[in-house]
Amino acid sequence: MGELEVEIQKKFKSFCLDMRFSMEGESLGILGASGCGKSMTLKAVAGIVTPDRGKIRTEKAVFYDGAARINMAPQKRKVGYLFQNYALFPNMTVEDNIAAGIREKKAEKYKKVKTLLEQFQLNGLEKQYPHKLSGGQQQRVALARILASEPDILLLDEPFSAMDSYLKEELQLELKEQLKHFHGCTIIVSHDRDEIYKLCDRTMIMDNGVNLICEETKELFDQPRHMLAARLTGCKNISRAERRGNNTVYAADWGIELKVHCEIPQKLAYIGIRAHDFLPASPSKSQENLIRVLPGEKTQAPFEWILLFQNADNPQGSMWIKRERGDRQIPEFVQVKPEKILLLEE
Amino acid sequence: MELSPILISLKTATLSVFVTFFLGIAVAYWVVRMRHEKVKMICDGILTLPLVLPPTVAGFFLLYIFGVKRPLGQFFLEFFGVKIAFSWGATVLAAVVISFPLMYRSARGAFEQVDANLLYAGRTLGMSEWKIFWRVLFPNALSGILSGGILAFARGLGEFGATAMIAGNIAGKTRTLPLAVYSHVSAGDMEGAYQYVLILVLISFFVVTGMNYATYVFQKYNRR
């Protein structure tokens, strides 16, 4: 089990990186919009960029300490970095790529390479050059190469961004399998919430160089407590909100009063409703959180459709509803269960 | 036809490209790794100067530094018994100085075109800087470096102005092909000049075509 403690600052032209987090032999996902400093954080841990001040340390070594003027060379940190474009050496075969980071005698080296080729199902490709491989194979070679160098920490920078969507899901499963064999800290950076949800124990939300929230992944996705967390975990409908009673909030952007099931936090600023939590309803059955639909634009996706609608009794901002494709009819009324309403702070 | 200009030229160009090739690569690597942008620009400016200055000006500076009565020229003469100015060595010196910027700039461009992530990957994998240079940076920059070397060879072969200044035009000793062409023409012997012109055109053509071919082959091999 490895530990990693990061507390760094670095100034850039457009933003200030200010990251504090610590982890212990788990997989941490960093979720954030592109350009918010996710990759920079990884690069600082790997030693590719140097922070202005702060500290990075593991239980074994101090990687960086601004005050003590310590800055360990990337070669000595034992940090594996999976680059977005995999950064395979184009002049070397698969075999030589994997062997590049092994510092052992030749015979030992190729024995190890052989084991890894097998583990990553790359048999038969050892003499190929990287440009002949598919995206998935390239990723496996890159991962094998990293594990060959026996890192203590694994950093994955947008591991699936260069891949077609049909390949993605298969490879995510595959990566999950491979990561099971790795017992150190793993950090995965992504702007794709599905990836993070599938692969990470804990998730950190990052915005403008700062980590806002760090929680158990399941908890964060099920019950986000901050507006940004709700948005980045895929909540389509977010409205400014104010408290109207013990169990009632007013959604100012949509012009509706809604019942919620639990205590309303003091700092309530927004509410969120996921697009699939709106259910078709009829007023004869239940009046709770019932909204009369004023339909707007409808978009068809392969297995679902998405409809923009307004509250017909007080038309204001639009909301999204997502239904399966089999469900053809645009509902006259929709309903949302009180426990499905996310109560969000700023 | 007097053969000595051909031999002198080939000898000069070969030795000078040998020196320029390694010197250019080393200096280019050094400049690429400079952290300070402004210092980098100034260094680059100085190193490129011989390419943009008229060769006679470069030759003037060489004469100023290595002339028999100048400190450095005297130093070489007294301590090593080597007279640099107006010797065969001076043709090499002139060719190196004039062709150096071509080699340096090609190598620098080639280094800078290599994906920086490859170098970072090498570092995080624990490869030493030496290993990264020879096994990652150099092979992936090779096509640019080779074409720089060929350009430098061609430039060294055609060097005239600086050679005339520092090495003179001594038949059988420092008279290279371009100087031989000049000598024949200025003596009104167009017939004699033709032969040397033809040889220069042929060599240059083959060198440039060879460079194109090498680039083509390497691009095919290195395509990602």
Automatic annotation (TrEMBL), chain B:
Show the GO cellular component annotation of the record.
Answer: plasma membrane
Q: Where in the cell is it found?
A: Cell membrane
- Span of domain ABC transmembrane type-1: 6-209
Keyword Transport carried by entry: yes
Q: Which Pfam families did the record assign?
A: BPD_transp_1
Matching CDD domains: TM_PBP2
TM ranges: 12-32, 44-66, 86-104, 132-154, 193-218
- Which superkingdom? Bacteria
A molecular-function term among this protein's GO annotations:
molybdate ion transmembrane transporter activity
Keyword Membrane (UniProt): yes
Q: Which topology term describes how it sits in the membrane? A: Multi-pass membrane protein
Q: Which UniProt keywords apply?
A: Cell membrane, Membrane, Molybdenum, Transmembrane, Transmembrane helix, Transport
Similarity annotation: Belongs to the binding-protein-dependent transport system permease family. CysTW subfamily.
What is this protein identified as?
A: Molybdenum transport system permease
Which organism does this record belong to? Answer: Mediterraneibacter hominis
